[in-house]
């Protein structure tokens, strides 16, 4: 027995595709920084450089093929050299991915590239654990270490 889809059925699910934005929608210009060390703090900071870890469960670019959202837990881990990322600006930046059609691997590498350009850190790791889809879980990790 064969099933034939009527034209109206094709628009209700099997052939539906949501429009997606291209990479130009990623708002890199919104990112802001602040100094790693306060200029008005005269006391030295003892110990090793600090590692900063920022995470969110709200990272959701979309599948470039279907336009459906891909929800992921994004973790940014870095050792600052001179600058730290300002969190409100980071939230706006990550939210700008909301309708961008981009594969998991490309999104993770793009976040790393944008933040490395912005912060020039000693080292940085971006890890995104995307939700299970079709029984498959994807975790993508991209790393950067400054060459000194």
UniProtKB/TrEMBL annotation:
Pathway: tRNA modification; tRNA-queuosine biosynthesis. Its EC number is 1.7.1.13. It comes from the Bacteria. One of its GO terms (molecular function) is preQ1 synthase activity. It is found in: Cytoplasm. One of its GO terms (cellular component) is cytoplasm. The keyword Ribosomal protein does not apply. The active site is at residues 63, 70. It is an enzyme of class 1 (oxidoreductase). Belongs to the GTP cyclohydrolase I family. QueF type 1 subfamily. Catalyzes the NADPH-dependent reduction of 7-cyano-7-deazaguanine (preQ0) to 7-aminomethyl-7-deazaguanine (preQ1). This is NADPH-dependent 7-cyano-7-deazaguanine reductase. It comes from Deinococcus arboris. The lineage of its organism: Bacteria, Thermotogati, Deinococcota, Deinococci, Deinococcales. The gene is queF.
